[in-house]
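Sorry, explain these C-alpha cells?

***
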Amino acid sequence: MCESGACGCRGYEMQCRSGYCGPGNVDYAYILGYWAKKELLKEKVKKRLEGKYGKKLDDLADAIVDLMKEKSKGEDEEAKRMEELDDKMASVFGEEEE
C-alpha cells in the first residue's frame, strides 16, 4: 500500500494522501499544479531581482568567474610543480643501481 511508501514516494502525506500514487490520480495532478505554481513564482521573483539588482549581480558573477579562473590556474601550476617534484623524487629514489 502506498501509505507505507511502497510506491517509492516514501510515504509523504502530500504525495500519498489517497493511499495510491500514480498517473491519473487527483493527488498527482494537484502535485503537478503545486509544483508549476512554485516554478511560476520563482520565475517572477527572478525577473524582479534582475530588474532591481541586475547590474550588481552581473558584476558579482564576473568577480566569481574571475576568482574561479585564478583558482584553476593556481591548481594547474601546483599540479605541475607536484609532477616536477615527483619526477625528481623518482630520479633519486626510483631505480636503484645494481
About this structure: The two ends are 73 Å apart (CA to CA).
